Amino acid sequence: MAGALVGGAVLSASLQVIFDRLASREIMDFIRGKKLEDGLLKKLKLTLMSSNAALEYAENEPITNKSVKLLIDELKDAVYCVEDLLDEIAAEALRNRMESQGQTSMVTKVSRFFSSRNPFEEGMESKLGEILEKLEDLLNQDGIRSLKEYCRGGKKFQRSRETSSVDESGVFYGRDGEKEAIMKLLHPENLTENQIDVIPIVGMAGVGKTTFARFIYNDVRVAEWFDLKAWVCVSDQFDVSRVTKSILDAITSGRDDSQNLDQLQLRLKEKLLGKKFLFVLDDVWNENYEVWDDLRRPFTSGAQNSKIFVTTRSERVASIMKTVQTCPLGILSDGDCGKILAKHAFVDGIPSMHRDLEVIVEAIAKRCKGLPLAAKALGGLLRWNDADEWNEILDSDLWDKLEKEGTTIPPSLRLSYYYLPSNLKRCFACCSIFPKDYEFKKEELILVWMAEGLLHISQKDSNAEGNKYFKDLAFRSFFQQSTRDKSCFVMHDLISDLAKSISGEFVCRLEGSGGSFEIAKNTRHLSNVQEQYDVLRKFKTLPEAKSLRTFLTLESSSFRPCVTSQLLDLLTKCRCLRVLSLAKYRNVNELPEEIGNLKYLRYLNLSQTLIKCLPNSLSTLYYLQTLILFECLELVKLPKDMCRLINLQHLDIRKTELARMPEGMDKLKDLRILTDFVLDDQNGSSINELGKLKHLRGSLAILGLENVAHARDAKDANLKDKKDLKELELLWSSDHDNIDKRREKEVLEQLEPHTNLERLVIRRYRGTRFPEWIGHSSFSKVVSVELSDCEYCLFLPPLGQLSSLESLSISGFTKVATVGDDNDGFYGHCDAWSKPFGSLKTLSFSKMPDWKEWKLCSRDDAFSSLQELIIRDCPKLTNSLPKHLPSLTKLEIDSCGNLGGLLPKAPSICEIQLRLCDALQLVPLPCGLRELYISNRIINDSIMEQMTERCTRLEKLTMCCCSNLRSLPEGSLPNTLKELTIMDGVLDCFKIPLYTSLESLEILDGRMRKLEVDWCIISGPSPPASVIICHQFDVT
């Protein structure tokens, strides 16, 4: 629809959102009602299109003329105002529609809103007229007109960078590991199955991909290893004919004037015949596989193990072209950046020849943020200056000035932004709200994008679209995965600078007590890095930002911050807010009724606050899409009219104290994420209301299942059709008295989910058997199952036939006596092609007081992938464990006093923990063991010596309550031992042999006080011959 409105024109990122708004249902209804004069609306479209050229130029070129920059900011502000006006129209239309529900003449009343003159409609025309007047005035200003003329003349912002293989100096700094790996790959003795190896070199702009490829290309060894070499700068226009011609010209040292692709490729194929070649395709942007396939056709005539390097910023480009592992390039160290800076700053390139500047070089190198491109640019800037001038530059406000003018951002980064589609430009600019080095989660950012209207409103699944946008930006190296937390992402400092330069003064970041608290009047998006006490002074200029759209709190540390009580009053006056987060403020325990005035609000995050209940006025926020109440530990109820939030898509109520769901949850038909659904025996939503929520995905926990009166209600929940649900938790309460075992089995039977399920949790189920769907082989995607406190169950379900199951936890089955017999079919019915528990990696049994026998599977290949086995609190278990577990790395047995027999044969095991299981036969322990924890009353000196005689790799030994042990066997413990802990024993400390490898010795005994000695030489009346140095020695 938006495309039809603008005749297919390419829109700037700023205008794309507006034309999407114009295509929305409410706005189109308003237009069809002819409540805006046709001429006025047409004039709006033409004026916006007229401003498009100037806005597009401003998005892609840094504007240094202050007066022009001011005009552009005013133009952007006017465009924001148009967005606000369209939102106001849509919100009013939606309000009228919602308030008309329940009336017989609903359609008539809504149409009356669009067909009769009313003050609201007249006000809209007046506001629109004012905005048009402002836009026209700005477009007639000389500065804006010059930008329009510049674009009309075809002088578009474009890539001008051309690269070559010529190395200006032959000097290269850093990346020793990458160089070694690439040279090994190129070595003639490294033969691969591929005829041609395509090796992508991937990294963000300015990280040195071209320089790295050039260094490899010019290595003297490479010239000996390859018959032919060619370097081509591909750039954004991946023209097959041009690239083919460039390769041909390079390897023939001539020039082919032919323009016919067929002739060019035939000639190239002839020249490559039987030759081993190395090509570098530098700066590739093409993501079309067919184009790449067309280019590589002549290459097949070359010799085996020819190589092609591809440098690109895009992981997607790499995935299309690569035949071997990608070579990712990260940032350089400050030291290497300093070397590059010195090379370009000093005539001789040697900082040690300039002692007075060495320290300054180190300080400025840190400003490069690991980018060699920035180091080179700064080196050129500082060249020929003396020490005083260097210091003046380092200590001056030049850095801030350059940042404001955009000149510290490498042109290559601006090019990255320029080539983004308009939808991604706005999404990327939105990220300017994050401070540098802030780690954010993909899911949270997508929800903010959705709230800001940056995901197409016509899309049925905005989350899928958001995921695509995020992946596209990550592929282009705008986002990098955090090294600290793999679930988070971060932007490089220069990428963050780029985002901020694009957003300008429309984004304000309050970054703690050391930063500025000035909030400009044209601020639209504000983030607040939380302090322990966020005082009023921090927000005193907030009322100036009358058109604020975003208020986002960002966590800065582990403390739970407080905020001034007046902040909420200030925020409820920001009537244009779309995004509001007050997460983690520990003194936020209620919301004012005025929250209902924020009629454009789409995102509300109150997680980890002490909010007790939400005002019913929140139910009038008809545009609300996301409500996050995670870990609101005091929250006991939701608004009673919550069913009116018809646009709600994401409701996170994990770890709350909700007693029930409000009635009418089935009316929230757009819900995608519903983390919990709480049932009770009083008023509230029934489980059958889940049936109408057809779009649920992700994770769902249903609590209070004892309150389901009829199995047919559970069937009406229709979980079986919810194909996007990946995790399901089915929970009964622990304190209900009326137990109907048959009904509970029938209810569970009807709660069968779709076979796409990946994780299943069932707790406190009171039936005696599980229904057939649990453990059925059709659930081939299930990777995790947790069954706990099902105290009336007599048998376990046939979980062994779940082909993808990796983690299984069984706990609290108080009546199960046997596992693995014919009644429970625990191993399932696996055919010759599948193994019982063939994918299982972690298995845990606990709190099973009547479990006596574990009948082993008749097939030897059961548990073939098991890595961790835990058995706790199973006092009657008597028979032996599985005899052979080839993949087991950890074994833990606790409080299983009757468990006898030998430990499993486990050649891969490296950790054993044995507590209160004295009947086990422990001699000898596996030779590969690295960690041993043992609590055993019958172990004596002789048994201990036999146990450990083969443990040649033991690094950590902990002994507890070994009351019969008097000494450690000298010479039987290996010299690999690093940590030794003795607890609650009567061991004679003078008979502890000390080892040269020992780093920590800890003795815990109730009769001693604590003694800590660091870095001590242990001595005594007769120390061992190999006197030891102990890093830490604790006696308690």
TrEMBL record:
Keyword match Iron-sulfur: no
UniProt keyword ATP-binding present: yes
Single Gene Ontology BP annotation: defense response
Pfam families: LRR_R13L1-DRL21, NB-ARC, Rx_N, WHD_DRP
Domain of life: Eukaryota
Chain ranges of the NB-ARC domain: 190-346
Annotated PANTHER family: DISEASE RESISTANCE PROTEIN RGA3, PLANT BROAD-SPECTRUM MILDEW RESISTANCE PROTEIN RPW8
Protein name per Swiss-Prot or TrEMBL: Disease resistance RPP13-like protein 1 isoform X5
Keywords: ATP-binding, Leucine-rich repeat, Nucleotide-binding, Plant defense, Repeat
Organism listed in the record: Durio zibethinus (Durian)
Gene Ontology MF terms in the entry: ADP binding; ATP binding
Domain R13L1/DRL21-like LRR repeat region: 687-812
InterPro entries named among the record's database cross-references: Apaf_helical, LRR_dom_sf, LRR_R13L1-DRL21, NB-ARC, P-loop_NTPase, Rx_N, WH-like_DNA-bd_sf, WHD_DRP
Domain Disease resistance N-terminal: 10-102
Domain Disease resistance protein winged helix: 433-499
Signal sequence bounds: none
